[in-house]
Amino acid sequence: FFPYKEKDTAGKIIPFPDDDTWAVYQKSGGKLTRDDWRRDAVNRFVERMYREVKAAKPWVKVGISPFGIWRPGHPPGIQGFDQFAELYADAKLWLNKGWCDYFTPQLYWPIKQEKQSYPKLLAWWASENTMQRHLWPGNIPSRVTGAEKGWPAEEIADQVRATRDQKGATGNIHFSMKPLLRNTGGVADALKKVYSEVAVVPASRWLSAKKPATPKAEWKGNDLVLRAADEAGLRWFVVREYDGEQWRTRVVFTGRGAAASRFEKKPQRVIVSAVDRFGNESVPIPIP
Fold first, then answer.
1. Dihedral sign computed on CA atoms, order 231, 209, 160, 272
2. Angle 141-74-127 (CA atoms, 0-180°, nearest 5)?
3. Helix, strand, coil % (nearest 5) of the chain?
4. Which CATH superfamily is domain 216-286 in?
5. What is the per-residue pLDDT for 33?
6. What confidence score (pLDDT) does residue 44 get?
7. How many alpha carbons fall within 13 Å on the CB side of residue 244?
8. What angle (nearest 5°) sits at the alpha carbon of residue 178, between those of residues 175 and 182?
């Protein structure tokens, strides 16, 4: 959410052009201050956006990624930009009200930077997640440049570990893909230590808690052919395989209720389940 104030060529802030609507509001008997009136307009927009998305397509996830600090002093000791006052963004309210399905505060600071402490801010946002939405903090591997002033790659991996240690936080969102694809500064290598295999996105059970039907599967040579018992709303098959030493997981996208997954050789055990577009997983079934 970035409606930052604009400046003219002389560096002077340009007043936001809402004099006409502010005058109409005052003439109608409005009692809010101008700042509160602006925040109220943004709040009503966020609420309406969430409500109307769900009315059109209930399974579509609405995400909000605000600045990482709500207001200085929250929690105590935190300093920085005040989005509540400067952007009219009451991001805490949006999370409190559950006007999103996943919430991604941009915690773009190192763990040891006390005035913008990653773990302290994450814990504070978790405490404000009263509607139990997905809390997936934003991380910035783009700061890992491989240059002297860049972040060490291990910082991002440590932030993922810190997120996993925080109750109520269930994932991370990284900005951007470029350093991950290019392995800038070894950041992709560092993340391999914390991302050992694929994972299923957590279910959004406030949208729907109904489990999809258990899928069907059969071997055709070394291909495991997967079919949905009911393809409506299905998104993935999850294949868990055991090779005699460890379990591994595959997530297979399904198009029109069917897919196949190839193996070099058949594993000792295979368990298959289906996942719908809300993230709900079916009862798993073993495949002989």
1. negative
2. 80
3. 30, 20, 50
4. Immunoglobulins (2.60.40.10)
5. 98
6. 98
7. 4
8. 135
Banded pLDDT at 4 (limits 50, 70, 90): confident
Residues near 128 by beta carbon (within 8 Å), at least 6 away in sequence: 92, 95, 96
Token pair listed for 140: 């910035």
* Separation of CA 58 from chain center: 17
Which residues 6+ apart lie within 8 Å of 129 measured at CB?
A: 95, 103, 135, 168
Rounded to whole angstroms, how far apart are CA atoms 255 and 184? 34
The strands making up 234-242's β-sheet, listed across from edge to edge, are 247-253, 234-242, 269-276, 285-286
Structure tokens at 288: 């002989």
**Hey, which residues does 100 pair with through a beta bridge?**
none
Angle separating helix axes 19-27 and 34-56, nearest 10 degrees: 100
**pTM to 2 decimals?**
0.95
Among 267, 261, 141, smallest CA distance to 198 is for 261
DSSP code, position 183: T
Widest Cα–Cα separation across the chain: 76
| Tokens at 80, concatenated | 């920085």
Show the beta-strand stretches assigned E in the chain.
63-64, 102-103, 134-135, 138-139, 173-174, 216-220, 223-227, 234-242, 247-253, 258-262, 269-276, 285-286
List, for residues 238-275, the tens digit of each pLDDT value.
999 999 999 999 999 998 899 999 999 999 999 999 99
Domain locations in the chain?
19-191, 216-286
User: In this structure, which amino acid lies at residue 21?
Assistant: T
In this prediction, residue 2 has a pLDDT band, given cuts at 50, 70 and 90, of: low
